[in-house]
Amino acid sequence: MAKAYDEKEMMSVAEVMGADANPVAGTAEDQDDMTHIGKKQELLRTEALDAGWLATLAWQTGIASGSYLTASQIQALMLLNDPSYVFERWHGTLLIIA
Questions:
Q1: This prediction's pTM
Q2: Per-position DSSP letters for 2-69, written without gaps between them
């Protein structure tokens, strides 16, 4: 069964509240709030970019440290198997590159 609505029930919230509820007719304070929101969004974008670069650098550092540790272990094994082996810094560098 259909319910009959009177005119007051069919009015929108903005019409009932008056012009104060109209988002277009804002005050200078409302515009300042919107400016702050825009700055917050810009700051969030900057923070997201910083987080991305930080993650990328952390990944690269992890890869490099893994290679360094592997090269050090290979040099230690070479020293254990051949006591006459002499450590040279460039040997480690070549092992990291390899």
A1: 0.47
A2: PPP--HHHHS-HHHHH-GGG-SSS--HHHHHHHHHHHHHHHHHHHHHHHHHHHHHHHHHHHHHHHHHH
Residue among 77, 75, 66 nearest 94 (CA): 75
**What values do phi and psi take at 3, rounded to 5?**
-100, 135
Instruction: Give the model confidence (pLDDT) of 35-61 as tens digits.
Output: 666 667 777 788 888 888 999 999 999
CA distance 9 to 13: 10
Q: CA 10 from chain center: how many Å?
A: 46
CA distances from 92 to 60, 70, 77 (A): 19, 10, 13
61-73 confidence digits (pLDDT tens): 999 999 999 999 9
**Residue 95 to residues 49, 64, 70, 72: CA-CA distances in angstroms?**
34, 12, 8, 9
